[in-house]
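In keeping with the milestone schedule agreed at the kick-off meeting, the structural modelling team has produced records for the first pair of proteins. Each record is given below as a sequence line and a structure-token line. The laboratory manager (R.T.) confirmed that both were archived under the project's standard naming scheme.
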Amino acid sequence: MKKNSEMGSTTRASTSSNAGSGSNQTVAAREAFQVLLELSKLLNTGLDAETLAICVRLCENGVKPEALALVINQARQGVSKSNSSSNVATNFDAKR
């Protein structure tokens, strides 16, 4: 009878330690993301925390980082061209 109660306490102890490791993993993930965000800022990527988190999730789900970088750069170029086109149109209208 005593052995059964000891086993139950061991099971409970391991279950509670697993719960603790889950929170440890969460803390570690947050710390890793903060380091990644700092690197992103140092490299002047222009990615905010939300966008970087989306990029990380995409990579975790199998998107190739090189392909993701290419898409982001192309999107930025498109936005840049669009903004410069609207500035030209605005300047043209102002000259009339």
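The second protein of the pair:
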Amino acid sequence: MPKYYEDKEEDYRACAGVREDFKACLLQHDCVVKEGKKPSECLKEGHCRALQTSFFECKRSMLDTRSRFRGRKGY
């Protein structure tokens, strides 16, 4: 479920909602906050895997030639 904020500037890029949730998940995870690791290191350990997969699927749907006719998936 994407998070939307009233005072935040609108992001019209593709997959913006999933991107925002993925970024928030990584930056608020204990791996980054308490252990002081970089978000890229936490990704390698498997944190926020579901959002990473959703973001990948959204970006991949943009390159899928079949989706040109059907439109992007609603993320």
